[in-house]
Amino acid sequence: MKHQQIARGALWNATGYVLAGSLAILYPILLLYWLGRSAYGLVSYLALIVNQSYLLNLGLGEAMAQQLTAAASRNATSEGIPFIRSALAGVWLVSLVLSLLWMTFGVEGLSWVFTLQPAEEQLLQTASMWLPPAIWGIQTGMLLGWIPVALGQFRSAAIHSLVQTIWQGLFPLLVLSFVPTKSPELALKLILIGYLLYGLTMWLLTWRWLGICPYPGRLSLLFFLLRKSIWSGLQGIGTIPYTFVERTLIGRWASLSLMGFYSAIHFFLSKATGIVIKGLESLFPVFGSVVDSPTRQALRLSQSVWILSLGIAIVGLGVWGGLAFLLPLLPVHIGTHERIILGMGIGFFITQAPIVPITTFLQSRGYFRTLFWLNLLPIAAVLVLSPVFVAHGLFFLANVTGAVGWMMIYSTTAFRDKVSRVLWYRWVMPTYGRIVLGWAIGTGGFILLPLYIGAPVGAGVSAIGLWGLGIGLLLSERYTPSWRAKRIFLGQINQTIRTLGQGIRRHFLSPVH
After folding, report:
1. Per-residue pLDDT tens for 204-218?
2. Which of 277, 330, 337, 479 is the most buried (most CB within 10 A)?
3. pTM of the model
4. Where are the alpha helices (DSSP H) in 327-395?
């Protein structure tokens, strides 16, 4: 019964996240079509500023969630309410500071960074008054989104994902679809208003969930939360250069048009990564506890990263092959630079996503300091390598280098006992290494073939090659030393999916009495 409840809750969480992510994928596609690459590039950059502002909340969300979970475990949820008020006061102070900085330096700073046309200057002026309330919205909504997670309320967590998608994705798209003139100024206003409404909705939902008005207060607890969240906060702040440096260099050195295309691919792949990860993570709680012993923890982590690596590689190569086949038919110019962005973006997708279960594993055990030092590697790779790679038109490659380096450092330093090390090296690293090699081969063909044998023929050959690589990766698993154990694990996953499917079918098709 307990496992069924865990599985049902995990399924709710995954369903909400998958549905929200699936709907959000439409966002960059339609905005690119309506606004054009250059305008979308600047609009998405401003939206990214709002999104990333949440990382400057100093880790208060994670610290608040820890205290709330501890209170709920003692059946004393009311004892966690003061921590919610304190964290809310903290993020509202951060929102105020960020808003003042934007109003003082934001428009002039971005005008200096990018070479803007008069219409783009006007777009920045439009953002000047709407961006501060959007910052308040994202800070408030993301902080309060931790509450259902901390309390184990999976349906409410799924509602949070849907609310986020409705206001941040569907709201601007629906309004734009019904207006005759789809201007960048209107699109930006709708996006920023959506962030504001997202925060307001989460504030009202929190009032409904907890039965109390979530006003800020208890400043005396703020320093306690900050001490708890220092490493998590530093980790979040450190990821900001990882997100902005390469994108900014593309917009400054190449063009806003290429930055817009890069931003759309980055957004699409980030959402796709989230869908795959949440869909697979929802299966693992039904296998039992992962805290029985360090060896069992290492086994579960190795299994999670292995199946995620293999699944993302096969799906990524399959979709990439289909896209390669369709590119000559699309009414969009796809030149060498665009092919590089697509090819390197797929590398970002398949090398970065397997890291997420590891970071989740470390976060759940409070290893925030370890994560901070580990994350310095991809950040350093982006800061040092991005200027070199962008100057040569190799976009996304700094991110790929950082992800592969992160995995190598973790693999050589994290496991102290022999059993855990053997599990990791038999389950994960051979598969991950073949995936990186297969991606490198596929990228070379995808970029170079159309240059030498013509776009239509090159697209067909690239597609066949990418599909062949995906099939080859799948077949190669049969010849690994741990294949027998992997086959048993795949059988467990198959049985779990069937059990969940039968439970859902009985739930919805059983007669109502």
Report:
1. 999 988 888 888 988
2. 277
3. 0.86
4. 336-352, 355-364, 368-391
